[in-house]
Amino acid sequence: MLQQSGEKDSEKSPEQKRQTEEPRPVTLAHKLPEELEKALLNLPAAEKERLIFTTMREEQFQGPFPHPRHAAEYEKICPGFLARSLAMAEKAQTANIEIAGQKLENERLAIANKHLEIEAQIQHDKQDSEDTKRGQYLGFSVLTALIAAAVF
């Protein structure tokens, strides 16, 4: 380690210590935990005490099926998993299409029924209008007959 003139090692800040230390080769073992363990086994005891590892791995994958790497692992554990998953997804898609078709048919029938109700209401209103006119004609005829009978 290099020391600057007049400074003791204990008086240096961690940042200064890092800057004055000689670079050492760093081996990254990030693929599998086994590789990490192997790398740690090869380090001297003093180095293990000074070294702190933080390993973080994040993967994101969206879709109806697992990531291909994960799917391969599932296949190792349960052969035929992907074929069954695909068949299940196809059945679910077919069911969703049928349900959507049924919903559309139900909506079409509801609209047709509403149309029939409106037509029936229109017919009823026309009949009421004709009955009202007929009643007015009969009332006028009766009144005219009473007035004529009173006059003569």
Offer a quick outline of the entry.
With 152 residues, the chain is mainly alpha-helical. Helix content is 68%, strand content 0%.
Short descriptors:
mainly alpha, 5 helices, 152 residues, 2 domains
Write structural notes for this entry.
With 152 residues, the protein is mainly α. It folds into 2 domains: 47 residues, no CATH class; 86 residues. The protein contains 5 helices and no strands. The radius of gyration is 45 Å and the shape is rod-shaped. The N terminus is likely disordered.
Q: How many strands, which pairing sense, and closed or not: the largest β-sheet?
A: none
Percent helix, as a range, is 55-70%
Count of DSSP strands? 0
Beta-strand residue percentage = under 5%
> What class would the helix/strand composition place it in?
mainly alpha
Chart the SSEs and their pairings.
Elements (H helix, E strand, L loop, with lengths): L13 H7 L12 H9 L3 H6 L17 H10 L3 H71 L1
